[in-house]
Amino acid sequence: MQIDKKLRLLAVKIGLTALVTLSGFAYAQAVKPNVVILATGGTIAGAGASALNSASYAAAKVPVDKLLAGLPELANVANVRGEQVAQIASESFDNETLMKLGKRVSALVKQADVDGIVVTHGTDTLEETAYFLSLVIRTSKPIVVIGSMRPGTALSADGALNLFNAVSVAGSKDAAGKGVLVTMNDEIQSGRDVSKTINIKTEAFKSQWGPLGMVVEGNNYWFRAPVKRHTAQSEFNIDEFEALAPVDIVYGYGNVPRTLVDSVGKSGVKALIHGGTGNGSVANRVVPALQEVRAKGVQVIRSSRVAEGFVLRNAEQPDDKYDWVVAHDLNPQKARILAAVALTKPVSSKDLQRIFWQY
Ligand code: DAS
Predict the structure, then answer these.
(1) Which domains are assigned to the chain?
(2) How many angstroms is it from 90 CA to the middle of ligand 1?
(3) Which among 9, 105, 259, 320 has most CB atoms closer than 10 A?
């Protein structure tokens, strides 16, 4: 009789312990944010022949589930799940891939059980995708775009910590409302401001206006916030269009012929970005070519090939007289993204200039 009673008591104790443990686990799960990781390829999914191949490797090989399985520490900061949206090196991104990714992000951020999004991406065009998402996704939930400069197979690979930091930031309440973010090399950068400035170092991503903050061991340290319009404050919404407007870039340099502008101007673009020298300067033989392009109804937008600074309106060229637009501080590739989004609906050059001041 005594043993029976003791056994029953032990069974109750085991049951209670299990119940407390499971409820504690369930509570922890419930408390942790839900972060969805959308993988598109790039070096972060790359693989090299040996640990010494930090720069020569094949990009876009490792599937998202394997990426996540290789980083169990993610469970410390969020409940994560992955989706493979694409598996390409990002130099091969195109408008259709951007739209596919954007539509998926837009659908996910509407879900109550999604607290944040991470996009893993090649570094070559990461800055374009991050800016694109900041323009067209109507949400205040954190969206973090990251990549890596070394494949996961290399010594001192940077992808794992970039991914951990991205998930940590994407699950952080204090990252909400700050626009699309890029967490590379311990820094939290604005997706609008950042660009790839070094093509062979892990400290590749910089903004001339500086990072927004840093993320260290899962904690965010903020030092500034974006002032340009983005995400929930944007006038653009990917739910309202199905394709980006065709916009292409012509680079300025010594000896540049006008024929490049002539051919792009005839290719059906709605805008031509001129990546000029200096403060967006245009060679004297190219000016008439741009005027002819403008006369055909194509918007002409002056950007600069110079990494820092911003193009002044009516300085190097009489923009008022020619009815041209200046790209402000946006480099040519980001100017293309903004023009491609803005021109999904009819817009005057005056309003297009307002858009370039505000975004
Ligand atoms: N080719 C590069 C890309 O996919 C590799 C990388 O750095 O991610 O953008």
Answers:
(1) 1-31 (no CATH), 34-233 (3.40.50.1170), 246-358 (3.40.50.40)
(2) 6
(3) 105
